[in-house]
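Teaching assistant here, posting this on the class forum so everyone can see the example we discussed in section. The complex has two components, and the goal was to see what a joint structure prediction looks like when all of them are supplied at once.
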Amino acid sequence: AQKVTQAQTEISVVEKEDVTLDCVYETRDTTYYLFWYKQPPSGELVFLIRRNSFDEQNEISGRYSWNFQKSTSSFNFTITASQVVDSAVYFCALRTGGFKTIFGAGTRLFVKA
Amino acid sequence: DTGVSQDPRHKITKRGQNVTFRCDPISEHNRLYWYRQTLGQGPEFLTYFQNEAQLEKSRLLSDRFSAERPKGSFSTLEIQRTEQGDSAMYLCASSPLGTSGANVLTFGAGSRLTVL
C-alpha cells in the first residue's frame, strides 16, 4: 500500500527563521514520483516540485530546498529565511503506477512578522 | 489560458438534494481528476478521466456520485441525495498527456459544498 505521512500538523516560526517540513512515504514500487504542493489561504493548490525515484539529487530553488533520501523514505522541504507570504498548508504527495496521486495530511505553516 | 476553472465556488444545499459541479480544465490537458478535501486533510482521489474515458474510480465514489466528461473537455461531478458527510471541498485538477508533465497536477480553486 502507498502512504504519505506528514507528522507535523502545524509549525509556527518567526519571520527569517529557517523551517523544515518533514515527509515520509511508503511504497513497494521502485518507480515513483514525489511532490510538494502549497495551499495558500486562498485555497488553490500550487505545484512546487517533483522528483522521481531515480533522482536523489537535492534541489534548491531560491529560498526553497528539498532533501530526498531513499534510505529513510523521506522527502523533506526546507524554507530558508521564511517570510510571512510562506504561510500556507504544504502537502507532500506520492504517485506510483496508475493515475492516483496520494497526498499527506499537510503541514500548516504560520510565519509571524 | 486561465487555468482550471470550477463552478460554483460555494454551494449550500439541504440534505437529500442533488448537486452538480463543473470543471473546465486547461484546454491542452487530456487528463482530468476529481479530488475531495475535508478540513485538515489532504486531497483524496475520487476519479480520473483521460479524454472522455473514465479510467479509474475510487471506492470513495459511492453510487450517489457520478462524473462525466462527455466530449473530453469540461467535466461534471454530480452528487445525488446529498448527506451531511458529503460536505467538503471538491477539487478538480488536470495534467497533460505527455510523460514530462503528466504527473504534475494543476488544480482549480475548488467547489465548497455544505450540506445542512
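For the discussion questions: The longest strand of chain A covers residues 88-95. Residues 60 and 66 of chain A are 7 Å apart (CA to CA). Think about how each of these relates to the inputs above.
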